[in-house]
Amino acid sequence: LAIISSHLLVDIRVCTASPKWHSALSRMATTGMLLLLSMVVLAGHASAQIRGLDPAKADKYPKGSGSFTCLDGSKTIPADRVNDNYCDCPGDGSDEPGTSACYHGTFWCRNRGFEPQTISSSFVDDGVCDCCDGSDELTDCPNTCLEKSAHERQAIRDKVASYERALGMKAHAEGEAAALQQSWQQRHQTIYSEIDTKEAEVKQLEAEKARLDAEAEVEKAKQAAEEEEKRKQQEAEQAAAQQQQEQAAGDQAGQADQAAEDAPAEHEETPEERGRRIASQWTHDPESAGVPASDVEGEEPVGEYQPEDEIQHDEHIDDHHVHDHYPTWTPPPPPTPSQLAANEVSGKLAVAKSGLEDLKQEKSKIERYWVSRQNFDFGPNNVFLPLAGRCFTDRGSRWHYKACFFDTATQSEPHGANTVTLGVWKGFNKDYTEAIFHNGDLCAGVGQRSFTLKLVCGEEVKIWGGEEPATCVYTATMSTPAACKHDDLNREQQQLAALEAFEAEIRAEIEAERAKKAAAGGSDRSEL
Questions:
Q1: Which of 388, 462, 367, 389 is nearest to 177 (CA)?
Q2: Res. 166: pLDDT tops 80
Q3: pLDDT on residue 286
Q4: Quick check: 89 and 112 in contact, CB under 8 A?
Q5: pLDDT at position 447, please?
Q6: What percent of the chain has pLDDT over 70?
Q7: Considering the entire predicted model, what is its pTM?
Q8: Nearest Cα to Cα of residue 153 among 508, 514, 504
Q9: What is the mean pLDDT of the chain?
Q10: With contact defined as beta carbons under 8 Å apart, do 349 and 209 qualify?
Q11: For 6, which of 78, 84, 178, 521 could close a Cys bridge (C-beta 3.0–4.6 Å)?
Q12: What is the DSSP string of 271-334?
């Protein structure tokens, strides 16, 4: 009714501006005037909650009768001309927060159950539900704000659950810190003697290995001498066998020579006959040689290309002859008893050296974080103590940022190239939300580098977001259960409880509005 009355007021103002409309107005029915007056009264009553008005600006609008000054100060108009669907403040459209009369005005959506929103006035009463509570339309728009806020409520539930788990991990870290300190206190009394014992064990094993290695060398030399003697014997046997073969071959050759001498002498070829024979081979004419063709075909022409198979046969023979000179592979001799024993001692020595190195590292930790514990602040209940000596790296960009708690921070390219020290451990800030490293490598024209690690609550210990916001000043963010606080959990739980209570309230309002509309619809149908 308030909107209808505002439309009628606009019509009246337009009509009275022209004299020709006075007669038409005088003919308006009495009932129509009464209806108009009742609408104006309703509109004045509704002015206490101006449609589309941002509550932050409510003090600049009249609560009832009076006047309104455009927010840009361009004009002052009567209060009843606010939201009358006529743009009196064209500069900022502030007189029409609930209509589309001013093209550059704004409409504030309350969005009960979700976040408030500001939209352009051109979207008001256009038949499209832009506000999730439907307040931008006079037609029925379903309230979808609770559906829109469902993901937000679930995100807070997930955050609360994560905080609870992280705080449980923080409590575990505090217990681990207490156990570490107790262990270091006890180990400080025994670690030095353990190192002495382990060093003696390493020396004994080294001496034992050296002795076995020497014995193995003697055994290897003896084994090599035996192999050499065996090889010489084999060579002598092979030489004797070869000599016998050569002697037998010589006897056969003598017999062949004697047979050749005993054979009748053959006709010796004259130069003329030889020339004819060679000519016949090239011309393939046996008659030119003056001898039968069968005799010529059996001869091999001088300088004629040899068949490929014969050449390959010759090469095969040559290759075989060459391969006879290649050294034959002989398997290595089996390990000697001393070598086997030395190998076993080498394994024990490696284990002993590794154990000695672990003991030395443990001693270094004890001396740094227990004996000199007064030099460090490990946080409330020493919650950061389990991070002592541990390093975490951010590999999310070209530069890798590495932070070692209570030690140093560095920046490097992948694979450790071009490493620079960003700072050495300085300590935490007052509320343990930052870990600070200072006195890093010198930076030309600036001074020494520095690195600040922002600490946030999280279940996983990791760092990310390494950057250089200012020259040679570096920052990154680190999540850790040690940074979680019960106050943060309480705040999230309160926010979740408030959202859930508000959700229940809004659902009740929506159901009440639906029931009211359903009842009104039934009443109208009964009257019809």
A1: 388
A2: yes
A3: 60
A4: no
A5: 94
A6: 78
A7: 0.56
A8: 504
A9: 81
A10: yes
A11: 84
A12: HHHHHHHHHHHHHT-GGGGTS-HHHHHTSPPTTPPPPHHHHHHHHHHHHHHHHTTSPPP-PPPP
